[in-house]
Amino acid sequence: MTLSTSGTDRRASARGEYRRAMFVYLAVTVLVAVFGIVYEHYSFGVYSNWMIYAFAFPLILGFVPALLYATVWHQSIVPMLSRKMWHAGIAVWTVGSLFTGVITIYGTDSVWSFVYAVAGAALLAAAIFFNIAGSDGARKSR
């Protein structure tokens, strides 16, 4: 026995996932911004742009696309593998930005900042590739 859902059910389910992702990314954005503010407050007057703007990664790369997919592009379904890689790429860049901010405030540097940047870029590029390739065939829109 095979269970299947109609295209309409998949789109509605995906739309709900995009809405949930939108709220999760908004919460992550606020938490990262608050963390940056608190960390900078106790950094004895030393500031880092990496720490100040770390909130921009989940806001621009997470919240905005989720908002667009939930409202404007709701007919499109992004493959699961692509979504997971996109989320991972945003997480890597956000953590990398916070890490680089901490290291900069401390007054040193690390090769790991470069590793975070490359790993995040690789994950985001793979997500775009798998989205274009349509890894699970669910990218059809009507």
Structure description:
- It contains 5 helices and no strands.
- With 142 residues, it is mostly helical.
- The protein has one domain (7-133).
- The chain has helices at 7-41, 49-52, 56-71, 80-106, 112-133.
Strand and helix map with partners:
Elements: H1 7-41, H2 49-52, H3 56-71, H4 80-106, H5 112-133
Helix pairs in contact: 1-3, 3-4, 4-5
Mean pLDDT: 87
Poorly predicted runs: 137-142
β content, as a range? under 5%
Report the span from N to C terminus.
27 Å
N-to-C SSE series? Answer: HHHHH
Oligomer designation: single chain
Q: Please bin the fraction of helical residues.
A: over 70%
Radius of gyration (CA) equals 18 Å
Number of helical stretches of at least 4 residues: 5
The total domain count is 1
Biggest sheet statistics: none
Q: Assign an overall shape.
A: elongated
Task: Report the strand count.
Answer: 0
What structural class should be given to the helix and strand makeup?
A: mainly alpha
Give a brief outline of the structure:
Helix content is 73%, strand content 0%.
Defining key terms:
disordered C terminus; 73% helix; 5 helices; elongated; 142 residues; mainly alpha
